[in-house]
């Protein structure tokens, strides 16, 4: 569980270190601004930047019922962040599964990505696409 938060914690800790350094150098405003920037980056790298994650089994059952795609992702992945933020509110039309939170999800990704845990991986029906084109995926979500 902690593994999911490591990138965000490291960025936040580095931000605190930079801010303290600026404060001791007599630059409180610069330190405060830098701390805010690092905390914003930490938020982007945290699981909170994504819709609620579910387990792989739950996502597969839900997708079979409603036909919505499954997106396998992991915290700290900049490709996942780019996909997530390019989708905007459409991201809620997919089932999101954190592969670091669910070993079955990691196994599902390895099964379609040649043994690698390459994310984002989108499963739409019986089709799996590793690192999908963002415009294509937006169109798929609009159509579903």
From TrEMBL:
Superkingdom assignment: Bacteria
Pfam families on file: Glutaredoxin
Single GO molecular function: oxidoreductase activity
Domain Glutaredoxin, residue spans: 71-128
Enzyme class: oxidoreductase
EC number of this enzyme: 1.20.4.3
UniProt keyword terms in alphabetical order: Membrane, Oxidoreductase, Transmembrane, Transmembrane helix
Residue intervals passing through the bilayer: 35-51
Protein name in UniProt: Mycoredoxin
């Amino acid at each position: 569980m902690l593994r999911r938060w490591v990138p965000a914690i490291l960025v936040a800790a580095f931000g605190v270190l930079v801010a303290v350094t600026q404060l001791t150098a007599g630059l409180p405003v610069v330190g405060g601004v830098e701390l805010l920037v690092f905390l914003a980056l930490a938020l982007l790298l945290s699981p909170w930047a994504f819709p609620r994650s579910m387990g792989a089994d739950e996502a597969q059952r839900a997708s079979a019922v409603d036909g919505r795609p499954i997106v396998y992702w992991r915290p700290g992945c900049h490709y996942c962040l780019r996909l997530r933020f390019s989708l905007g509110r459409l991201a809620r039309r997919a089932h999101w599964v954190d592969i670091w939170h669910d070993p079955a999800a990691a196994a599902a990704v390895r099964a379609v990505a040649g043994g690698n845990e390459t994310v984002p991986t989108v499963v739409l029906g019986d089709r799996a696409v590793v690192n999908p084109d963002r415009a294509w995926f937006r169109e798929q979500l609009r159509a579903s």
